[in-house]
Amino acid sequence: MLRKTCWQGMTQVPKNSQGRSRRRTTLSDVASHAGVSAVTVSRALRQPDMVSLDLRERIDVSVRELGYIPNQLASALASARTGTIGVVVPSLTNIVFADYLKALHDIFQPAGFQVLVLNSRYALVDEERAISTLLGQHPEAMIVAGIDQTDHARKLLENAGIPVVQTMELADDPIDINIGLSQVDAGYAATRYLLDLGFRRIGHVAARLEPRARRRMEGYRRAMEEFGQDTNLLVASTRRPSTFALGAEMFAEGLASTPDMEAVFCCNDDLALGALFECQRRGIRVPEDLSIIGFNDLEFCASSYPALTSVSTPRYEIARRAAEIVLDVVRGSGNRPEERRIDLGFTIVERESTRPKRPGGT
Amino acid sequence: MLRKTCWQGMTQVPKNSQGRSRRRTTLSDVASHAGVSAVTVSRALRQPDMVSLDLRERIDVSVRELGYIPNQLASALASARTGTIGVVVPSLTNIVFADYLKALHDIFQPAGFQVLVLNSRYALVDEERAISTLLGQHPEAMIVAGIDQTDHARKLLENAGIPVVQTMELADDPIDINIGLSQVDAGYAATRYLLDLGFRRIGHVAARLEPRARRRMEGYRRAMEEFGQDTNLLVASTRRPSTFALGAEMFAEGLASTPDMEAVFCCNDDLALGALFECQRRGIRVPEDLSIIGFNDLEFCASSYPALTSVSTPRYEIARRAAEIVLDVVRGSGNRPEERRIDLGFTIVERESTRPKRPGGT
DNA sequence: TGCATAGATGAAAGCGCTGTCAATTGCCCT
DNA sequence: AGGGCAATTGACAGCGCTTTCATCTATGCA
Description:
The structure is a homodimer. By secondary structure, chain A is of the alpha/beta class. Chain A has 13 helices and 13 strands.
């Protein structure tokens, strides 16, 4: 690769407009401008039908003329309702959580709730800090990814007195509400799928090694053991974060220690696509020479050539359900749903990158 | 594709722990528990060296025992400092903004600022609403993607009395601070790069058609016109959001109207990779039969086979600079940087998917 | 015509915290 | 020993809004 032609334009400084903060217009500014009391303005904005049409119109005019924007902080403090949902995800760059966050926004935004997202960088201490920070904003509910919070974080969440949803995985002992799927079962199923195709020399490529990846690997190990396979040389894993390039690298590593590998289960799709690229680069035909299965069923799995078989996880659905349950609890009767733990399962989507082992060869 | 084996476990309901909200512990709870005044507790938490070691320890114990979490809302209201930065991006799922958001978090989090992100779904009205909502939270600065805000949104931002950064593009008339690159120039450069390689039948594939994609297309048109090329049949565009599958589809469409296409400039990498997959599917060799250049230089460009040539945009850098400038202004002297408009440019990264036109054929 | 009643409006009291300034203490210096 | 000063601590008044309750119309009815 060679970096070429760096274009960098001139920097013409535009006109300077300072505009530093004079006091922002408040409710009472609007009130005196409209010649009414502050309470009336407040009502006109929140419960318009409690205010006469006449005043309402005058207030609307004042609001627009003064460019009034209600101070949510003051509102939240006075009413003890913040209209805020706290969300903690381990990564912002992982496309898996993009789907998840999109679902949360899709549900909460129209409902008038704002989603506050903090990331934990896949670290328990950061997660605890994020949870604490979020709780300080008095969200009306908390939605966290995973089930591996620290004891202190758990305690904070339990004492917050708000609905708490743990997602993506199934917990034996949920804090409050739990929606997800069994990562162990999913890892087992992916491996079992390859075993049932007739393969035995099945590699596993894993990166980051966060709790969910570990559990998938545990599923892999369990399945392989059932078929009497020793997995020591078949696993290529690293703590580095997943990338396409790392997928290629780790796959190559696995291949080095197990040259007769027949199939590979990658712990996520990024690694799987990286492995696929590496196969193309080396002239290994997929699926003729090697079968590949990924995990998560990201969009590109259906488009790549060959299209990637993957384990589809209901990320959007998990977040959607979490959001809907939270909304029910928060504005509704205040009682939790009947089911405290919801298993949304997973699906193996079979595409072109896997096929049964040929009777004779690999 | 066939969907197979749906695993969905049993749903065992865990023990019910209701735990509804008793009043949360406040500063004065801690104060009376520790036998001091509320102010002292406040100080012990925010400026510990103003409080004697003795009291500080007693207070720390009380804080821990009562599980006290400061109410940020009240704090923000009283101090007029929210420690919050408002950010508006057009999409949460687009990996381009994942990089951007990561940079913002990387800079702001350690500095003690919280990033509030709202998305505008590539719609001006949604953006205006997002800006208004965010402003209601009294952020200490606003960072928005793009330069195409509505007049009203502009006015709100101008009147907010806080630093405002418009990013990703260069504006003729920035609201306040502006950091980005010229999308037109970048589109022009990508096209010019292919022209300079000797190609003339250069297709352009574009999706979503948000302002930046349009400007890249404008650059493409400008370059093509300089070389006397009519672009009418060469452009395949759609308002649908970019996906890998759409890249394949649109590329196929372009190929249908221009069978003798020699090269293609895709307005983003997702489309480019989709086009590459489609080539593989059809047995079109890249770059032997067709050259492909993408845009943004996402991580997979370097890993795909063949590796994709792309226009690298400094997304992380843009956000980083924006964040640093904001921090300077917010906590520092309060004065804006010398440069109100910063051009971070772009770079063409040449890889395997492009090569010079062969003298004889294509 | 007079009184009850619903509807519309306003006054006052905080929400939980911080900024400001006053009060207290202990210690150093002359 | 007394004054001065720094170091601590506390009292009080809001931040801008909502909640609650009181007040003040209109209207309906007897």
